[in-house]
Design goal:
Aminopeptidase, globular, binds coenzyme A, acyltransferase activity, transferring groups other than amino-acyl groups, acyltransferase, N-acetyltransferase, GNAT_dom
């Protein structure tokens, strides 16, 4: 299930974020986490299965739009549908908004576009 980020998840969130190609630099990573903590229009979610945090998705919200900024799954849990499940959960949570990608998440969003709509 998708849960909201909180400070106690900082280290696991940074580990997951670091799998993004644009978050390899530690200073950038720290700034990104800080932005998610401080900016009202930025929301970070984690994917929890039982007690394990194995995925992360970060979004930027506007009135009509939700843009996926970051998406990452623990390498040991990839290819099991978690990435798509996170996108579907976002579509369900923000059903009134249009879900879009940025340049770093576009490839995966395009990949799962057909299978992640809330009506599925
Ligand atoms: C992208 C990512 C979140 C997918 O998570 P996942 O849980 O393995 O995804 P799912 O199991 O739901 O879906 C797997 C499908 O996505 C495809 N996929 C994986 N990474 C992809 C990428 N970067 N671009 C496009 N498609 C991708 C797989 O090939 C697979 O396709 P298939 O269904 O035809 O076999 C994961 O690979 C990851 O954390 N990557 C590193 C971070 C990253 O690069 N994020 C940005 C991605 S654009």
């Amino acid at each position: 299930m998708l849960i909201r980020y909180k400070k106690s998840f900082e280290k696991i969130a940074m580990g997951l974020l670091s799998f993004m190609p644009n978050e390899k630099d530690l200073r950038k990573l720290l700034q990104t986490i800080k932005d998610y903590e401080n900016e009202d229009n930025l929301q970070l979610f984690l994917w929890r299965e039982e007690e394990d945090i194995i995925g992360l998705v970060g979004v930027s919200l506007t009135e009509n739009n939700i843009e996926v900024q970051h998406i990452s799954v623990n390498p040991s849990h990839r290819q099991l549908g978690i990435g798509k499940a996170m996108i579907k959960a976002l579509n369900d949570m923000y059903a009134e908004k249009e879900l879009t990608a940025n340049e770093y998440t576009e490839a995966f969003l395009l990949k799962c576009e057909e299978g992640c709509k809330s009506s599925d």
